[in-house]
Design brief:
about 575 residues; alpha/beta; Signal recognition particle alu RNA binding heterodimer, srp9/1; Rossmann fold; Helicase, Ruva Protein, domain 3; 4 domains; five-stranded mixed beta sheet; five-stranded parallel beta sheet; 21 helices; 13 strands; about 50% helix; binds adenosine-5'-diphosphate; binds zinc ion
């Protein structure tokens, strides 16, 4: 018995070592190596920043920048690649044969490891759990780099306000518990890449003065069976040991994708297991630990609903692209330590960088500095910034000098002004909290409505109001630019309007002509070739569209004022809109 146990222990240990080694072989995305795209790599070569490349026949190249940073990128496997490197004065280290050997070896190791891990899982779970937790420790690194505060994040005022509340909660959870408050556990930050989600999470940890654990959802995919779930458990265990902390899960969509039916190919069993582990850990909080889990995604619509339920990521905060004012602030933040020449007008730069994310603005200033350094100029000039501008835009679809043409800006401004104005004119109880021509995750431009939710039922009047608001964008385009110049920008509006009309007359019996019939029932029966519903819906939509046009024509002065202001400011807050409407 005793010897048997020892043998087992030894076996487990040996296998664990193999697992660790083989992971070492396979981890291209290890801490030391920054992963960059091949295109970025070529750009760095062109900028003469690469010192050394290691060629070993594997899928990934490893190399070193002149500043000492290590990176990895895709191996193009081109025949004259080595010559290309040498011609660019880059040192080439080859271990071709060894590379092949490495591959074979690591393949064998992998096979053993996979077998080993499943053996471990099946047989001696306790010991295995210990070993796995050990491994997961490696992933949960505490952040020690420069202290980021909320002052380092420009724009996104609402997001910052929301997170500032949490600072107090992390510092003193007992205070809230004493009042019987249910404490937040998970907060989801969503919005386009490079808008400062990671930055906000770091700032939260820093301002609350607690450790910051960052992982990425993509680290959990394609790992060996059971390891993803175990890593999650290890991460939370470690965070709990430290007491208070902020856990940040970037790209949460990678592990929390919508589960589409049991036999869908996308729903991997392994991903589900990892996701379940996360949900279990989050439900396991008592709430007084002072641990907050932040997650980030670019695509909230693809997330599994289970993640968004109460007690999980039930607070959702949008982090959007900056408007001109925020862009100016971001540019200022990222020129703090840079010598700018007198001729640099950051306000002008902000005006010309519509649709730029914070990350892109940061890289604009950084490129400018590099160009200035390369030419040994005394200071960074407008000329450098202009050159950098095109460099930052390299590889993106050809755009106008300003990122967006004035014409597009004008169309979007009138479109959004149309929505907002109709909303304010069709009902007294609807609040428009923001109008903006900066695209949001939800669509083209954006406007936020606050529809009173203290009602149990929607009346026919409410639905009509909403239909007209949805049509307001297209109607404004038609009035201002003419029938032949209407754009494709209204497609999601029309989708919404169509859905509402169909529901109104087909489900809720709110049309005199079609009466009280419920068409959902009819369409599901075998009497479903009745097109009267569609015809009728089209007529009704037409009628409300006409009403919307009339309404906007009557309010044309206001439409122009709102649109003009939008063109200059890109986004208007509620008060600014009210001010215009009060004129
Ligand atoms: P995300 O997590 O949303 O993809 P990050 O937080 O990683 O974006 O942003 C990348 C970098 O871009 C930041 O480190 C910062 O330099 C810059 N940046 C992005 N958004 C902002 C912002 N709102 N204010 C200041 N800098 C920003
Ligand atoms: Zn619209």
């Amino acid at each position: 018995m005793k010897t048997n146990g020892k043998v087992k222990l030894a076996l487990v240990l040996a296998l664990s070592i193999i697992v660790v080694i083989s992971i070492g072989f396979h981890r291209n995305r290890s801490f030391k190596y920054k992963e960059i795209s091949y295109k970025q790599f070529l750009k760095r070569v062109e900028m003469n920043l690469v010192e050394e490349i290691r060629l070993d026949g594997s899928d990934k190249l490893k190399g070193k920048f002149k500043d000492g940073e290590m990176f990895t990128t895709d191996n193009p496997r081109k025949e004259d690649f080595k010559e290309f490197l040498l011609l660019n004065d880059i040192k080439v280290v080859e271990d071709g044969g060894k590379g092949l050997l490495n591959q074979v070896l690591s393949f064998l190791l992998m096979l053993t490891a996979i077998g080993g891990v499943s053996y471990i899982i099946r047989n001696s779970s306790k010991q295995a759990e210990k070993e796995m937790t050990k491994m997961s420790d490696v992933d949960a690194a505490t952040l020690t780099e420069g202290r980021v505060t909320f002052a380092d994040v420009a724009g996104n005022e609402e997001a910052k306000e929301s997170l500032k509340e949490l600072v107090d909660f992390i510092k003193d959870p007992e205070k809230y518990l004493n009042y019987g408050a249910r404490l937040p556990r998970g907060v989801l930050l969503y919005g386009p890449p490079g808008t400062g989600k990671t930055l906000l999470a770091k700032a939260l940890a820093n301002e609350a003065n607690v450790p910051f654990y960052a992982v990425s959802g993509s680290d959990f995919v394609q790992v060996y069976a059971g390891l993803g779930a175990s890593r999650i458990r290890g991460l939370f265990k470690k965070a709990k040991e430290k007491g208070k902390s902020v856990i940040f899960i970037d790209e949460i969509d990678a592990l929390g994708k919508k589960r589409r039916g049991a036999n869908s190919p996308s729903g991997s069993e392994e991903g589900d297991r990892t996701l379940n582990a996360l949900l279990t850990e989050m439900s396991g909080f008592k709430g007084n630990e002072g641990i907050i889990v932040l997650a980030a995604t670019n695509r909230i619509d693809t997330l599994d609903e289970a993640l968004l339920r109460p007690g999980r990521f039930d607070r959702q905060i949008e982090v959007g692209l900056p408007d001109v004012k925020a862009r100016f602030k971001i540019l200022k933040i990222h020129s703090r330590n840079k010598p700018l020449s007198e001729d640099v007008d950051l306000k002008k730069v902000a005006l010309e960088t519509v649709y730029f994310s914070g990350a892109k603005l940061e890289s604009l200033m950084n490129e400018s500095a590099m160009i200035a350094a390369k030419t040994k100029a005394e200071k960074i000039t407008m000329d450098h910034i202009n050159k950098a501008y095109f460099k930052v835009l390299v590889g993106e679809e050809k755009k106008d000098r300003t990122g967006i043409s004035l014409e597009d800006k004008k169309i979007t401004a009138y479109h959004e002004a149309g929505h907002a104005l109709v909303a304010k004119r069709v009902s007294d109880s609807i609040r428009v909290t923001k109008v903006s021509i900066i695209p949001s995750t939800k669509g083209m431009g954006g406007f936020s409505l606050n529809i009173p939710t203290d009602k149990m039922y929607q009346t026919k009047k409410d639905i009509i109001a909403n239909i007209m608001i949805a049509l307001g964008g297209r109607a404004a385009e038609e009035i201002v630019f003419g029938k032949d110049c209407i754009t494709t920008g209204a497609s999601s509006d029309l989708q919404k309007a169509t859905k509402m009309v169909l529901a109104m007359i087909g489900s809720y019996g709110m049309d005199d002509q079609l009466g009280l019939l419920n068409y959902d029932v009819i369409l599901n029966s075998n009497l479903n070739n009745d097109i009267s519903l569609i015809n009728r819906a089209r007529d009704i939509l037409e009628k409300y569209y006409h009403n919307t046009i009339e309404l906007l024509e009557k309010n044309r002065v206001y439409l122009n004022m709102i649109a003009d202001k939008l063109i200059v400011k890109e986004s208007l807050e509620e008060e600014e809109l009210e001010e215009i409407l009060a004129k």
